[in-house]
Design brief:
The chain is built from 12 helices and 10 strands. The protein is globular, with a radius of gyration of 19 Å. Strands 1, 2, 3, 4, 5, 6, 7, 8, 9 and 10 form a 10-stranded parallel sheet that branches.
Length: about 325
């Protein structure tokens, strides 16, 4: 199948968008090492060897009214997580500076809940405005479902990018959430794009979905023309409905990353939550599977690893942390 991969690479570099039939071949018949070879070549061709890093601030934790089966912050589950209201401005600035000093090019403000009330939105706009024009990382926000008007307010405050995952395919989504619809998630992505913000949208894998769901999600993201694609892998949390879910194998995860590079060759493919738990000693392989970015530091309810270790991993592979060459940052 290496000849198939070589031919596909040439066609993609010439502007070809792979079909669902192509994707089915990549996820079923192609040897994993041939697939990684192709994905790595595509990353190099479209993104170069500069690797971007992002970090998040858990700005409001717990007490979420949605029932997403994987989430430890839902009031519908019995998981034990820290809960607190929106952080104040001083705590936000401290967290932002810490993330920036750790090497992040982008810092995301994340709040729990299906949507943000107007008072918290106003406060977040103020926090964003305080950082506007200062040297440092660009700001992203993950605030649940929002309207176009609210997205415009965030953009006017100085926000660069909005994050909102679709999580999985339309077919599989009702299996993991019943308190809101897939259409509501898609509409949030569209509203954010209409407001002129960049969009970061991807998924969570290891929920019990099939390969067809992973393919469907990739093609939906391509149709929506999102800017950045975060790929998360389930880290089961005690007290959630998926606490006993069987983990994906590292090779399955690498195949997923490679699939997304083939379907979305020019996008920023970002490996995020569950990296340490699921990939273990194969974490560095994500770049050879096509990833051009990683999330560093802690996640919402689980711990990441040392940012210094992640930087060294990038350097040891002969890749370039973007912060060390600012002129080459792909924000």
């Amino acid at each position: 199948m290496i000849h198939y991969i070589a031919d596909l690479l040439t066609r993609i570099q010439d502007g070809y968008e792979i079909s669902r039939d192509d994707a089915a071949v990549l996820t079923g018949k192609v040897d994993i090492h041939d697939l990684l070879y192709g994905a790595n070549r595509l990353r190099q061709y479209f993104c170069g060897n500069t690797i971007t890093c992002c970090a998040i601030i858990n700005a409001k934790s717990g007490r979420c009214g949605e029932d997403c089966a994987y989430c430890a912050q839902s009031v519908h589950h019995s998981s034990a997580v820290q809960t607190y209201p929106l952080v104040d401005e001083e705590m936000f600035v401290q967290a932002y500076r810490s993330a920036y000093e750790s090497g992040a090019q982008g810092v995301g403000i994340v709040t729990s809940g299906g949507c943000l009330d107007k008072n918290d939105l106003r406060k977040i706009c103020g926090m964003i405005g305080k950082m506007r024009g200062k040297d440092g990382a660009y700001l992203c926000a993950s605030l649940g479902m929002i309207s176009e008007d609210d997205a415009r307010a965030l953009k006017e405050a100085g926000l660069k990018r909005f994050h909102h995952n679709l999580e999985t395919s339309r077919r599989f989504f009702p299996r993991i959430c019943t308190t809101h619809s897939y259409d509501e998630r898609v509409e949030t992505v569209k509203a954010v794009k209409r407001a002129g913000l960049e969009v970061c949208s991807g998924g969570l894998f290891g929920l019990g979905e099939e390969w067809r769901d992973r393919i469907d999600l990739a093609f939906t993201l391509r149709e929506l023309d999102v800017d950045s694609v975060p790929l998360n892998f389930l880290h089961p949390i005690k007290g959630t409905p998926l606490e006993a879910a069987a983990p994906l194998s590292p090779m399955a995860i690498l195949r997923i990353i490679a699939l997304y590079r083939f379907v979305l060759p020019g996008k920023d493919i970002r490996v995020c939550g569950g990296r340490e738990y699921n990939l273990r000693d194969t974490q560095s392989w994500v770049f050879y599977a096509g990833a051009s970015s990683v999330m560093i530091g802690n996640y919402l309810t689980t711990a990441g690893r040392s940012t210094e270790v992640d930087r060294q991993m990038i350097v040891d592979l002969g890749l370039v942390p973007a912060r060390e060459h600012p002129e080459r940052i792909r924000a």
